[in-house]
Amino acid sequence: MTRDLWPRGIGRPLQDRLTAQNMPAEDRWKLVGTELHEICEWAVVDCPESTNNNGAPQHVLTYCPELTPATPNASVQVVLHLQGFVKVCKLAPLGNWNGQADSAVKAAQILVLESKGYDNPFDVQKGALLNLREFILGRLGDPQTNTYAASDSIYLRRRVFTRASGHLSVRASDTMVAAVTLTYADDPQRRAEKIKHAWRIDSKPVTGVQREDGKVVECNYIAIRPGDFVDVCVSAQIVTTRRQGIPRATIDFTFDTVVRLYSAAQLSKVCLFTNSPHTCC
Predict the structure, then answer these.
(1) 258: which strand partners?
(2) What is the DSSP string of 71-127?
(3) What whole-number distance in Å separates Cα of residue 93 and Cα of residue 203?
(4) pLDDT tens digits for 198-221?
(5) How would you classify residue 143: left for phi > 0, otherwise alpha for psi between -120 and 50, otherwise beta?
(6) Is 141 helix (H, G, I), strand (E, B) or coil?
(7) What integer pLDDT is reported at residue 174 of this predicted model?
(8) Strand (E) positions, the chain?
(9) What is the pTM (predicted TM-score) of this model?
């Protein structure tokens, strides 16, 4: 498992005893290869059943139904666990939204991970995302060049808002109740309230921390800070359009859960960054 490649065992949650060797037989299908030819054996890009905020078809990356014994012939979305050191985090319920109605379509929560010099496990994860992109582009017939490998970081983006109507033109008389109720601390100026006729918030990212006893408890998003080592649940958000008759796919890796396994201060106490990563550990 990639998580075991991190130094000093920081990639393995304290209460997690699961290994590739002791994993129950009925769950072993979850151990999948990340090379492109391996992904072709276990992954499927489902036909779209919904549209995004601009009305474009959305697809879902799922496991081949034959691999999921608990739900035969059912679609199970692929969710990856990625780990790394927080480089940038904007996890507030309204993300980077500037409060203007016309910018709600682009509002997002942002999480950027880096390796801090521990390239072996991080490059494995980057390679997996690169190959997943290559697979998705191929399955959707998109001829564009896959350039995701150019970055030294892993960039994750999560949309804040969803249109309150299935139509691109939304009338002020439309009444849709947001799936999530924001607190005063979430939106002190009540700006999201003013556009709820057009935009709703379906969910907020869940954030947690691992305590010293190994128990993971939910926490406020402000507990996740740059330099922390985190475990993130990631899925692919796939939208297709056609430009001059040529299919184009936009692929974002999005997140729902962020768990801080170790804070930057805790990592410094185990001398993770005292010297070079290769001599210290």
Answers:
(1) 207, 232
(2) STTS--B--EEEEEEEEEEE-STTTT--S-GGGGGG-EEEEEEE-TT-HHHHHHHHH
(3) 9
(4) 898 988 999 999 999 999 999 999
(5) alpha
(6) coil
(7) 36
(8) 43-51, 57-63, 80-90, 108-114, 154-159, 162-163, 199-200, 206-210, 216-218, 229-243, 246-262
(9) 0.85
